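Pipeline run #58 for the internal structure catalog. This entry was flagged by the ingest filter as a single-chain record with no existing model, so it goes straight to prediction. Upstream metadata was stripped on purpose; only the residue string is passed forward. Reviewer on rotation: M.T. Logging verbosity set to normal.
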Amino acid sequence: MSTGTQSLDRALSLLSLIEQSHQEGIELAGLVEKSELDRTTVYRLVSALVQAGFVERDSTTKKYRLGVEAMQIGLMAMSRAPIVESCKPLMQLLARETEDTVFLVVRNGDYAHCLHIEQGSFPVKAITQHVGGLRILGLGTAGQALLATMGDAEIEAIYIRHREEYESHGLNLRELKQAVKNIRANGHAVTVDIITEGVCGVGVAFEITKGNYAGVSIAGIGSRFPAARCREIASLIGAQLRSIGFRSFGGK
């Protein structure tokens, strides 16, 4: 095996190890132990992966996780995932019924990834995300619903890692925890003016496999989303999910 091929093979092996520990992160010592490579080699290769954006290093915990570039590669494949095909008819129906924009997202590490969008007929559109886009969990409606499916300690850890971005959108940890509490109690998320001023959204998380969730949200201009309609939309999403065999998260 040539030197270049060997380095590539080792870098991909390290990337795979980081992927396996993505949620909790992994330290350099852990990579050395699991890869059985010497520390200098691991540090050199993982540093190159960080520089290329395939891996990120938490400045506080010193742990490594997948970077945005690695996620984007996986997300391109997910755009044709079975969940998209399963949910397309449901999303098209929701877009017709509500006349607003419908989004399908899944969790990818600390981010919500948009898999599919269906636009309703209302002339003023609320396109707050694009297919393939990534957004920190909690800063979008469906992403906030997904956040509520996670444990409190994990939610706090995500907030700490991305505090600056949350705060730039006017969201502190206390407010985020309260939103999560409401979602768990009511079975749906409601967001107002988080990403785009004048836009409101309603989102529901649902289990796609044991312990793994996706989210459907509907967004539009705020004047179209009084509290009563938000509840109606949440009920409509839940009913349509049940009709194709999915179980919504939260609620009584």
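catalog note: The chain has two domains: 3-66, 79-248.
catalog note: The longest strand covers residues 199-209.
status: ready for reviewer M.T.
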